[in-house]
């Protein structure tokens, strides 16, 4: 059972994260957290959705845009928290564009997580339902270098919308992704902040109030 309170939600997410997190390659900054970006545990989505909805409660949100693939699940969860009138959009991360997509923004994005340092070609964003002046909240599961977020935000801005926020399940502070996105004049938020990783699944989490370590040692 997830506690429905900011402190309870944050503590629950931290516990789940530290339990499931595995350091794949400490030197390159690779980490896997199955319940956050592979099998997407419903309790994690629910707790994160509440935290994100609270963070942006002072904003008017017309559209929630999920970055594929896991960001789409988070977008749905957050939309249910924010309200029934919000519209949920997504982009595509493969080469195939649905025939029904007529108004498309496309770009090449170097995805740290999915392309192993190579170039991932986004099919694009379906802009058919985006209107000038819409206020958009962009969501993803992970923020590493921030390049994906910057490109998606850029594509949305070309349509004349205002991107009011960018939120993720977790980010890796040492790769500077959220800071890069923030330079786009976008408010950023991360449910879990990873300060450092090291061998033997050593992981340090940090936020404004406290920090934890896993793996039996600090890094």
Write a short abstract of this structure:
The protein has helices spanning 6-20, 34-37, 42-55, 70-82, 147-157, 177-182, and strands spanning 21-25, 30-33, 63-66, 87-92, 104-109, 120-126, 135-143, 162-172, 187-198, 202-206, 211-214. By secondary structure, the chain is α/β, with parallel strands linked by helices. The protein has one domain: Rossmann fold.
The CATH architecture name reads 3-Layer(aba) Sandwich
What fraction, in percent, of the residue positions are helical?
Answer: 25-40%
Q: How much is the radius of gyration in Å?
A: 17 Å
What is the number of helices?
6
- Quick one: biggest sheet? 9 strands, mixed
Number of domains: 1
Provide the structure class.
Answer: alpha/beta
CATH class: Alpha Beta
Oligomer: single chain
Q: Estimate the global geometry from the Cα principal axes.
A: globular
Strands across the major sheet, in which order? 5-6-4-3-7-8-9-10-11
Low-confidence stretches: 208-219
Number of strands: 11
> What is the CATH topology?
Rossmann fold
What is the string of SSEs from the N terminus onward? HEEHHEHEEEEHEHEEE
| Mean of pLDDT | 82
Query: How much of the sequence is in beta strands?
Result: 25-35%
Distance between the termini: 31 Å
Organism: Candidatus Gottesmanbacteria bacterium RBG_16_52_11
Protein name: Phosphoribosyltransferase domain-containing protein
């Amino acid at each position: 059972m997830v506690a429905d309170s900011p402190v309870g939600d944050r503590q629950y997410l931290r516990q789940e994260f530290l339990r499931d997190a595995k350091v794949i390659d400490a030197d390159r900054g690779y980490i896997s957290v199955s319940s956050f970006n592979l099998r997407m545990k419903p309790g994690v989505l629910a707790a994160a959705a509440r935290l994100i909805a609270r963070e942006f409660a002072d904003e008017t949100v017309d559209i929630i845009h999920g970055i594929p693939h896991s960001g789409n699940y988070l977008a749905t969860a957050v939309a249910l928290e924010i309200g029934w009138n919000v519209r949920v959009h997504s982009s595509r991360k493969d080469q195939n564009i649905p025939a029904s997509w007529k108004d498309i923004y496309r770009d090449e994005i170097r995805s740290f997580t999915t392309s192993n340092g190579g170039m991932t070609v986004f099919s694009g964003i379906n802009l058919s339902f985006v209107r000038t002046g819409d206020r958009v909240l962009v969501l993803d599961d992970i923020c590493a270098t921030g390049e994906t977020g910057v490109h998606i935000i850029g594509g949305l801005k070309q349509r004349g919308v205002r991107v009011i926020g960018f939120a993720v399940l977790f980010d890796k502070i040492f790769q500077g992704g959220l800071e890069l996105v923030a330079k786009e004049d976008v408010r950023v938020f991360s449910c879990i902040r990873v300060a450092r990783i090291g061998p033997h699944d050593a992981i340090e989490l940090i936020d404004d109030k406290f920090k934890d370590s896993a793996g039996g040692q600090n890094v």
